[in-house]
């Protein structure tokens, strides 16, 4: 006689999802760490190798300290495969249980996570304060268990998602190779590209989202060779995307992607829906199964998994932010490595909008920006003895439209963020003889260790988007756009694209 399935209890579901969200905030998946370590070993670009080292050191520090890998602790995606015969012992809906799990995980006092979700997205954009709601997808399948995939997806990589309706005879690989350069470094490479092909306009992104959770196994595919056309496409895209030379953080190098995933399903004869989703250097996801026997505890990876690396700052120049002058900034060139010391202001989207609105209205600004540097960041709240929680850079291009009014009207001298600036922002930086530097996206906990004190100066109601003043000591950054308009995100990939082509065509002696 078949035994009836044990009911899955409400508390078991909520606590399992909450625990998994805490787990993935500080543990990279083991396969991802191994792939990143392999990329570090083979990298030949000094700038990219340094970025990879910072990402790996940050990852190990997060695993040891149980603090977030990235300050953008993501919007929560819960993907469920619910058995048709599964039994539930719950008063709440699946959505409500997922929301409670997110609330519990993101407000856990020992490891507070950043609340990034905004209600009224087309209006006031008010923070929900607990990172709810979760984004929930589920499929109903045979069986009596509930299979759970949880992920925390950062906004920078999500913003670079692409979706198109190709014509039936259009080439998917050609389209991807057109799209990837337009994504720049905003999605924090190296990471994973996931393709969903077929179905319908709403189904293609879901195919890509599911495929993104699959193990990083490109090394196995390379070793054995493709067994079908889908695997052949994965391999072709892996080789051709990496040949673009974009590299870690867009600085130019050998590895832009660690893996490429492709998931397909039949589609209408008149269509070819395609979705391209990037997963960044803060790839975070976990998988478990609930069978009614109680909550699930995930096994932490061994610290032996991470390579033991140390950063080399011997070629970096120390800068005193409290005394820095335009004349000193004029001596810096794109690609130079700096260690920032002193008082560093912060501000991102909401703060910049407030500041420019105040300038337009002729109002006095709450902060004096003369010869100051501003860091584009939305930090995690501190715990224990921290001055600030993980505080890595956010995507700088979102602030491009504010660069001219800030440089022209406030006396601002420098900006710090991640990835490239657009041509209009670069021209403003050149015109005003300012500078733009980058910190490594995906190294938020490492960066936070350079922040020794923090206080809010303006707009406290904006939460993580308020203007802070950080006291920093030896915060590592790279000059990305110098006062003459030289841009490392242009020169680096261009140089390495040529270098990779030469490597491919070189005849062994």
> The CATH topology of the largest domain is what?
fumarase
| Strand order within the widest beta sheet | 14-15-16-17-19
| Strand coverage percent | 15-25%
Task: Indicate how many domains the architecture comprises.
Answer: 3
The helix tally amounts to 15
**End-to-end gap:** 71 Å
Total DSSP E strands:
19
Q: In angstroms, what is the radius of gyration?
A: 23 Å
| Proper CATH architecture of the largest domain | Alpha-Beta Barrel
SS-based class? alpha/beta
Report the CATH superfamily of the largest domain: Fe-S hydro-lyase, tartrate dehydratase beta-type, catalytic domain
CATH class wording of the largest domain? Alpha Beta
Largest sheet: 5 strands, mixed, barrel
Spans of 5+ residues with little confidence (pLDDT < 50)? none
The helix content, as a percent range, equals 25-40%
Q: Tell me, rounded to a whole number, the average pLDDT.
A: 96
């Amino acid at each position: 006689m078949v035994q009836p399935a044990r009911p899955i209890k409400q508390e078991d579901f909520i606590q399992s999802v909450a625990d998994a969200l805490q787990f993935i905030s500080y543990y990279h998946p083991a396969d991802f760490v191994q792939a990143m370590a392999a990329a570090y070993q083979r990298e030949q670009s000094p700038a990219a190798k340094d970025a990879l080292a910072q990402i790996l050191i940050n990852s190990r520090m997060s695993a040891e300290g149980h603090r977030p890998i990235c300050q953008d602790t993501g919007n929560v995606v819960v993907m469920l495969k619910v058995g048709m015969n599964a039994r539930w012992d719950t008063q709440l809906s699946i959505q409500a249980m997922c929301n409670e799990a997110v609330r519990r995980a993101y407000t856990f006092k020992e490891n507070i996570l950043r609340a990034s979700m905004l209600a009224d997205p087309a209006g006031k954009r008010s923070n929900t304060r607990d990172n709810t709601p979760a984004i929930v997808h589920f499929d109903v399948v045979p069986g009596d268990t509930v299979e759970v995939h949880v992920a925390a997806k950062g906004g920078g990589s999500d913003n670079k998602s692409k979706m198109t309706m190709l014509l039936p005879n259009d080439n998917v690989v050609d389209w991807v190779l057109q799209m990837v350069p337009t994504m720049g470094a905003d999605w924090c490479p190296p990471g994973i590209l996931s393709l969903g092909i077929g179905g319908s306009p709403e189904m293609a992104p879901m195919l890509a989202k599911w495929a993104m959770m699959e193990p990083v196994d490109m090394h196995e595919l390379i070793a054995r060779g493709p067994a079908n056309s889908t695997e052949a496409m994965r391999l072709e895209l892996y080789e051709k995307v990496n040949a673009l030379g974009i590299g870690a953080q867009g600085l130019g190098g050998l590895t832009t992607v660690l893996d490429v995933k492709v998931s397909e399903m039949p589609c209408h004869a008149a269509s070819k829906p395609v979705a391209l989703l990037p997963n960044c250097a803060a790839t975070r996801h976990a998988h478990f199964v609930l069978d009614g026997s109680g909550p699930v505890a995930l096994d932490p990876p061994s610290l032996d998994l991470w390579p033991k690396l140390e950063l080399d700052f011997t070629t970096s120049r120390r800068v005193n932010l409290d005394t820095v002058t335009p004349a000193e900034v004029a001596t810096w060139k794109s690609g130079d490595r700096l260690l920032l010391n002193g008082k560093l202001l912060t501000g991102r989207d909401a703060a910049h909008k407030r500041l420019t609105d105040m300038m337009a209205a002729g109002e006095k600004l709450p902060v004096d920006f003369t010869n100051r540097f501003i860091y584009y960041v939305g930090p995690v709240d501190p715990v224990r003895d921290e001055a600030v929680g993980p505080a890595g850079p956010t995507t700088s291009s979102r602030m491009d439209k504010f660069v001219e009014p800030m440089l022209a009207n406030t006396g601002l001298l420098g900006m710090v963020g991640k990835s490239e600036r657009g041509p209009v922002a670069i021209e403003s930086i050149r015109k005003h003889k300012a500078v733009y530097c980058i910190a490594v996206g995906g190294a938020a906990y490492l960066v936070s260790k350079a922040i020794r004190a923090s206080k809010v100066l303006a707009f406290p109601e904006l939460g993580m988007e308020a203007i802070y003043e950080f006291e920093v000591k030896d915060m590592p950054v790279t000059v990305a756009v110098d006062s003459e308009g030289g841009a490392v995100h242009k020169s680096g990939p261009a140089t390495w694209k040529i270098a990779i082509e030469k490597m491919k065509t070189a005849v062994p002696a």
